[in-house]
Amino acid sequence: MPRYLLIKTSSMGDIVHNLPAVADLHAAVPGCRIDWVVEKSFSAIPALHPGVGEIIPVSIRRWRSRPFSAATREEFSGFRARLRDARYDAVIDSQGLLKSALISWLANGRSHGLDFKSSREPLGFLYDKTYSIPWTVHAVQRNRLLAAAAVGYELKEPPSYGIAPADRAVSALTATFPIGPSQKFAVLLHATSAANKEWPEGDWIQLGTSLAAHGISSVLPFGNATEKARSERLGARIAGARVPPALDLDSIAALLSLATIVIGVDTGLSHLAVALGRPTIGLYVSTDPAATGLFGSTQAKNLGGRGRTPSVDDARTAAISMLGKA
After folding, report:
1. If you ran DSSP here, which 8-state letter would residue 246 be given?
2. What does the pLDDT look like over 96-127, one tens digit per residue?
3. Residue among 232, 175, 183, 248 at smallest CA distance from 212
4. How far apart are alpha carbons 71 and 49 in whole angstroms?
């Protein structure tokens, strides 16, 4: 049975973008086994895919903060042993960074990565074979093309993310945050990794108010104390809005899967919503969606771009149109 190792450690959106490569590999090589190296904090994402076998967590971010501690040395030793425990027919590094290239070099198998012109760093000397993948194609397609080149097949089907939340996660969510199957609600993903990617709070309030007028309530999840405070501010101004308790990745996937529509800024959770098959609108303020925007679904729409903040009217019109087709 052929066995392949995918290396995509972070961030959330990048990991989601690598999911279609799993379906491609299984279609091209029936019966193959696919393992995945990922940052421990994001390991719940590849775990959502039934086509992923062993998930090998890595904690590079934490190890960097304490590189010489006994705990770091012990954890890294265990990670290296686990990485070399299996023999891989192909080790595919679609991350294209020094940290991931070093992982591919440590793994037990022929390593494949991006060439000098296709990656952010000159890493070709760490791979057994490199490939030229155009920067002009979307990140999802770059990942798929790299895997196809490494294993030797052509892409024939549109991308399939192939994930679904675990039933236990849905049950756990609805037990703590009751959401009936007939309830119509929008998940508003206002939080992102950088302030320049945020959409104005006043615009969120207007959008949520408009959705409420169409019978769609708003749910405002958060990831930290600052985001929780914003969720509560917005919730206080949007009729019928609800702020859920703190949710782990399994629970947020369950929440997104139940949503009538998801509207979010440039954040990994917006991509996760698309991967879960939900109607999703991406609001881009300072980044270009052509390269890393919502992709691979007829129910996904990108608005705005670098220096082009989407208006409330843009978002409202897109949402109403999408809801009419849902």
Report:
1. P
2. 999 999 999 999 999 999 999 999 889 999 99
3. 183
4. 31
